[in-house]
Amino acid sequence: MSAAGDGAPDAGRLRPPALGLLLAEARGLLEFNASLLLSPLLMRAPRGDGHPVLALPGFLASDLSMAPLRRYLSELGYEAHAWRMGRNLGGLARMREALRVRLAEIHAASGRKVSLVGWSLGGVYARDLALQAPEMVRNVVTLGSPFANDVRATNATALYEMMSGERVEDMAELRAAIAGELPVPATSIYSRTDGIVNWRTCLLQPSERAENIEVHLASHIGLGVNPAALWAVADRLAQPEGEFWPFDRGGPFAIAYAPQDRAVSV
């Protein structure tokens, strides 16, 4: 049985994370500092093959929030790109065309398929882009992205609706497609201690080319700079184009990952 206030299902609906988890989001700074201290270990991750990666920020965030991730991926040999659209004020329908244009620019300039790494709402955008333009997308990795189940179960839903002018209940068909199987390899990285997003809304349906990776004790705000999450992103992006294999939960950050068979348990 789930503990009270952990965002467990109630009469078929999910709840946002409890206040205690929300207040604990301040530990994101500690996760960033940990990545700086553990940078020698992080640089032991598999090297990239130079293909382009587009980093998509979360709700209310900008390219600055993704700068550490882009820098890390660049040092590993990837061609890391910012989204260049200012602060992410939300609006899935409103942003679709601009995002596709940005993806097409990178694809045309490099002549290669683009991997997409999206944090929170940025991950929802990434999954939608993969549905729109699979011929331009190589891989999708999401970080704490609420795309499945009851996507209202976040502590940012009301603010999102106010800022974007969109209601979460709208576009039911599009939301169902984003939650479904993608035509490209996909990985969802999440944490049960996320204080913004109910972790169950981050779970994709595992398949031969789709996988969930749970990071212990990570915050939502810190997930994009958490050392174990960064390692997992680098590992997933290093897979050859058109190939997919399960994430190896060994290595220097093994203690930070939940076992694979726990990933979708409630």
UniProtKB/TrEMBL annotation:
UniProt KW keywords = Hydrolase
Please tell me whether the keyword Transferase is annotated for this protein: no
Q: Which domain of life is it from?
A: Bacteria
Q: Does the keyword Ribonucleoprotein apply?
A: no
Molecular functions (GO terms): hydrolase activity
SUPFAM superfamilies named in the record: alpha/beta-Hydrolases
The record's InterPro entries line, in alphabetical order, gives: AB_hydrolase_fold
Q: Which PANTHER family match?
A: SLL1969 PROTEIN
Entry protein name: Alpha/beta hydrolase
The organism's lineage is:
Bacteria, Pseudomonadati, Pseudomonadota, Alphaproteobacteria, Hyphomicrobiales
